[in-house]
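> Could you send the GyrI-like domain-containing protein prediction when you get a chance?

Sure thing. Input:
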Amino acid sequence: MKEDYIKRINSILIFIDQNLDQELSLETIAKIGNYSPFHLHRIFKVVTSETLNQYITRKRIEKAASVLLRQREVTISELSLQYGFGSNSSFTRTFKKFYALNPKEFRKTYPDKFSKIGIVQSKNGQENGIFDQYICSINNHKNWIKMKAEIEIKEMPQLDLAYITQIGHKGMQDAYSKLMKWAIPKGLLENQNVKIVTIYHDSYKITDTDKVRMSACISVNEKIKAEGEIGLATLEKGRCIVGRFKIQITEFEQSWSGLFIWMSENGYKKADRIPYEIYYNDFKEHPQRISIVDFCIPIA
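Output:
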């Protein structure tokens, strides 16, 4: 796959994310990537493993699911119209294909049950048992945060980044390897203030792990030209919940879950900006293979 193809698809992914509530015609999107409509269909599926229509539909449904969980004042009819479905019934049918629940059921039920990482299903009407498991899980996450994290509310500075896009968690190590091969000859790692960052464009709560889009990033303090599949992005400055963790590589999921529970318990609301991680060491060089990392949740 030519690097230029990936760069152009990246621009399309960003455009789609920013315009899910607008009409997204094939012709408009093809122009963004400087493709013919015919070639866009082929290249897009090679890069993302989804057709363009499949990707747009999935992102709209996932965005709607996120709103259902966080903004209970928004009605299902409003979501249906906002994200381009012709009717409530069409929206409901499509939503149920993704989550095996209609939007109303999804909103009523505990979000942790329908995490795409670990789904807890009710069997034989054992709802009380599941409720107990849920409460136990919440308490475990709270205890985890007390033991593992130092939490602050901080005004985080703007970060200018060079990045490589990765779809699916299993390829992140390769993405960082490519990024470092590009950055090291340019002397970018020699800056003592350089930061290694992972950005999460999707949530594991509502997106399958093999479809979660992430960016493997390195901070840049000078004018860098984007090359090939290397893109440039900016994390806006703003208030964040920042949890400093010292954890094993297998403990990231639990740490994120605990931090989001801490956010809810303390009355904070996530802003419409993307969460990210900042790393302070290479866990492979630590004697106990510990990662020292800040988890950052932007808040309103």
